[in-house]
UniProtKB/TrEMBL annotation:
Protein name, per record: Peptidase S8/S53 domain-containing protein
Keywords in alphabetical order: Calcium, Glycoprotein, Hydrolase, Membrane, Protease, Serine protease, Signal, Transmembrane, Transmembrane helix, Zymogen
Domain P/Homo B: from-to ranges: 480-615
Location(s) in or outside the cell: Membrane
Length: 853
């Protein structure tokens, strides 16, 4: 009854339509995404909660969208809370309730769309400086290419990024690839952006309608509708502009091009998650030239549904080979932004592409980070990217920023897929890494040698993409084995971070056995999730030093980042250690270089090594992420803590903490022989209990020196090379290796002994506890305390209602974790809409300025 009347109310007549793509009316309705277990039918949930089941959420298995009339409350959470309360009172724990089948629920909120990575207008249009004289031979070659391939496109000669006759060699080296017949045939790129002008004469023949959708206006055609909706079309032109007599050509001019419009209006995480998986059996590459603001102070990441969609894409997209995500690194370099503060660019599932200009220089805007894999050409040195524009026959002469680099890379990957459609998402990353060409490698400050004979630069990644090089290598590439990973336990530090050049260095030893057990053969990505308490985030920096002394600058100081917080379960990523074995001492160095009144504490960290499996037959798929993945900071139930101690006894991992004088500038590639493996593992293992270890630091002092690196040259590197003096500060401690334990995922709560709240409540409580701990109160990390946090929190659950976040947004924001950040900014979204949409006063389509063609 309730259901059908609701359906009528919502006017949902056409229930046969692609259900997840029905128009949304956030003014009248609420939308919930629920992840259900296998036994629970959506109709059952709908009946029980009085919701209307709209349909599945895109490609995410067992995720469904439900609709309800608009209400203040999150009614699913409320029901769950009430159920928990009833159970608490009646103690009828036995009976299964339909709500028990809800593994996850999230009330959808509209939030600001992400920002496009064109150059901020304050930088003005690119200067047009003299570009020098073309090289006669190069001009001849260019003419030959145009004649042979019958390229009649009028601005082909302006497209220096495809063929540069002035700065010879500074282009993507693609023309011989085309001449060999590789032009992107049978490859499809989706431009996730503000639309794509499918009626442009330069795009219409390559337009792939089935893979396209407008998530902002809920129509099949992702047409640019706002005056500023030009970005996606320009990006599309770089990939797939047709070889004809209009403008120029795309780098993969015979590829198919789809458009997914998400940047032109407020959007929900649910819609973005669907977009990121849209037609993912055919859309092979998703080109994304957007992200959190490049303002040098944002630190934001995709919400859980989007992260699930991205994992789902690499596991199930393209017939299981994995969708290929390409992201622009960001344009925030002038404000010291770094792409490791962006959860899309630092995802292991995306290829992060920075920019290089037509003179081979680093353009002032292009962000660096240890997650940057490669660069390719974009604006700078007085020129921009010339491409298609919105309109039937309009060309853009001023496309630039890293926004223009990512689609160029995506187009080159389309060429690769023409010759090798069987490559996995990781094969593509390997190929990009392996064939990239270092830029000015003689500049030693930029480049450090890695253990596999590559050079890495935080500015240029492994170098610039060479189309010929990557396509040739792809032809004979042997597919890599499946992915495997090793996750360290949380390594507790709890040390104040001294200001200035000193830092806190903590070492964690990874043994051969650990990696064997993890089935991990060699590294690809390394991620570090960490917690730091601080009163000014921008003062902090973090380096990770591998067993081979290869250095990742995971985090850098950012002067605009005044946020009164440190890092809360933030994950940094590095591709710098690609190919290393992973075995040995991993040292993390946290510094607070800026001397001011702001100080903080390094709480804990968690090392994750990702790479190729040893034994492909033992490989498994990574489970979907949950909000609780990183909440497992300690052995929570005290009973299992005992067990863990004994489990690890035969294979102790030691962690060492020290406050030492750290070189202000660790050389990127310190000249240092490999550290000799020492009595590390022979040391008495700190198995007993954290307190014991902490109260007897002196016991550990003697053994610290040898473990830091025994050989004279090791010491030379650390202590000597740059006239550095190691200063032992007080409080040298050893911290417990708490457990090698499987992370608790969806079932995590089964291990708790106390009454359970739903996941979001638990999360709210846990994070609320952190948030509520104002000032410098240490976060709770131990089992008993966590238990208290949960138990105590149940008394004031209401504090954790969505509304509470509104009220407390100001208090909360500086200390927000990524998920809280999203929640809080969501709640402000409607007011801040103008920021993105321009002068519009309302969210209503009718108020939009029609696009002038
Ligand atoms: C095009 O791609 C599809 C699947 O991606 C494949 O089955 C087909 O053989 C390809 N065609 C050509 C001509 O390569
Ligand atoms: C560029 O392509 C040519 C073939 O056109 C090839 O010989 C050359 O090696 C490529 N450049 C690089 C750096 O791979």
């Amino acid at each position: 009854m309730k259901v059908s009347s609701l359906a009528a109310l919502l006017g949902l007549a056409a229930l046969t339509a692609a259900t997840n793509l029905l128009p949304r009316n956030f003014d009248a309705n609420d939308y919930y995404v629920l992840h259900l277990d296998a036994q629970t039918h959506p109709a059952e949930i709908a009946r029980s909660l009085g919701l209307f089941h709209e349909g599945p959420l895109g490609e995410l298995a067992d995720h469904h969208v439900f609709v309800a009339r608009k209400a203040e409350d999150d009614i699913v959470r409320k029901e769950k809370r009430e159920l928990a309360e009833r159970r608490r009172r009646k103690r009828d724990l036995g009976e299964r309730h339909v709500l028990d089948g809800v593994l996850f629920s999230q009330k959808q909120k509209l939030r600001k769309p992400w920002e496009k990575r064109t150059l901020p207008t304050r930088f003005g249009p690119a200067r047009r400086t003299s570009r020098g004289q073309p090289d006669a031979q190069a001009v001849q070659k260019q003419a030959h290419v145009a004649t042979t391939l019958q390229i009649l496109d009028p601005i082909f000669k302006e497209q220096w990024h495809l063929f540069n006759p002035v700065q010879v060699g500074h282009d993507v080296n693609v023309t011989d690839v085309w001449l060999s017949g590789v032009t992107g045939k049978n490859a499809t790129v989706a431009i996730v952006d503000d639309g794509l002008d499918m009626y442009s004469d330069d795009l219409k023949d390559n337009y792939y309608a089935q893979g396209s959708y407008d998530f902002n206006d809920k129509t099949n055609e992702p047409k640019p509708r706002l005056a500023e909706d030009r970005h996606g079309t320009r990006c599309a032109g770089e990939v797939s502009a047709v070889k004809n007599n209009v403008c120029g050509v795309g780098v993969a001019y015979d590829s198919k091009i789809a458009g997914l419009r998400i940047l032109s209006k407020l959007i929900s995480d649910a819609d973005e998650a669907v977009a990121m998986n849209y037609d993912f059996q055919h859309n092979q590459i998703y080109s994304c030239s957007w992200g959190p603001p490049d303002d040098g102070k944002s630190m934001d990441a995709p919400g859980i549904l989007i992260r699930r969609a991205m994992l789902n894409a690499v596991q199930n997209g393209r017939g299981g080979l994995g969708s290929i995500y390409v992201f622009a690194s960001g344009n925030g370099a002038p404000v010291e932004d770094n792409c490791n503060f962006d959860g899309y660019t630092n995802s292991i599932y995306s290829i992060t592409v920075g920019a290089v200009d037509r003179e081979g220089k680093h353009p002032f805007y292009s962000e660096k980070c240890s997650a940057g894999l490669v660069v390719t050409y974009s604006s700078g040195s007085g020129d921009s990217i010339h491409t298609t524009d919105v309109g039937q026959n309009n060309c853009a002469v001023n496309h630039g920023g890293t926004s223009a680099a990512a689609p160029l890379a995506a187009g080159i990957f389309a060429l690769v897929l023409q010759v090798r459609p069987d490559l996995s998402w990781r094969d593509m990353q390997y190929l990009a890494m392996d064939t990239a060409v270092p830029i000015n490698p003689e500049n030693k400050e930029d480049w450090q040698a890695t253990t596999i004979g590559k050079k890495y630069s935080h500015t240029f990644g492994y170098g610039k993409i060479d189309s010929w090089g990557i396509v040739e290598a792809a032809k004979t590439w042997k597919n890599v084995k499946p992915q495997a990973w090793y996750f360290s336990p949380w390594i507790h530090v709890n040390k104040p971070i001294p200001e200035g050049d000193k830092g806190v260095a903590v070492t964690f030893t990874v043994t051969e056995d650990m990696l064997k057990e993890a089935n991990l053969e060699r590294l690809e990505h390394v991620t570090v999730t960490m917690n730091i308490q601080h009163t000014r985030r921008g003062d902090l920096s973090v380096d990770l030093i591998s067993p081979n002394k290869v250095v990742s600058h995971l985090s850098v100081t950012r002067s605009p980042d005044n946020v009164e917080a440190g890092y809360v379960d933030w994950t940094f990523m590095s591709v710098v250690h690609w190919g290393e074995s992973g075995v040995g001492d991993w040292t993390i160095v946290v510094k607070d270089t800026i001397k001011n009144k702001h100080t903080g504490t390094f709480t804990d960290w968690h090392l994750k090594l990702w790479g190729e499996a040893r034994d492909a037959s033992k490989a498994r798929l990574l489970p979907m992420p949950t909000e609780e993945d990183d909440d497992d900071h300690a052995a929570i139930p005290t009973t299992t803590a005992q067990a863990i101690t004994t489990t690890i006894a035969p294979n102790p991992a030691t962690t060492k903490t020290s406050s030492v004088a750290i070189p202000t500038d660790i050389p990127d590639r310190p000249v240092k022989p490999k550290p000799t493996q020492t009595s590390d593992t022979a040391q008495p293992s700190p198995t007993q209990d954290e307190q014991a270890a902490q109260t007897s630091p002196s016991t550990w002092l003697p053994s610290f020196l040898p473990t830091l690196g025994v050989s004279a040259s090791t010491r030379a590197w650390i202590y000597g090379a740059a006239a550095l003096i190691i200063v032992f500060c007080s409080g040298l401690g050893i911290y417990l290796w708490m457990a090698r334990r499987k992370r608790l995922r969806n079932n995590a709560r089964e291990n708790y002994e106390f009454e359970l709240l739903d996941e979001e409540e638990a999360e709210g409580l846990a994070s609320g506890e952190k948030v509520g701990a104002a000032g410098n109160k240490a976060r709770r990390t131990r089992g008993g305390e966590l238990y208290d946090a949960f138990a105590g929190g149940s008394d004031d659950e209401d504090d954790f209602d969505a509304g509470a976040y509104h009220d407390r947004a100001d208090d909360v924001s500086p200390r927000m974790s990524e998920k809280q950040a999203r929640g809080a900014s969501d709640s402000d979204g409607e007011e801040e809409e103008h920021h993105v949409i321009g002068d519009d006063d309302s969210d209503d389509d009718n108020d939009r300025r029609p696009l002038q063609r």
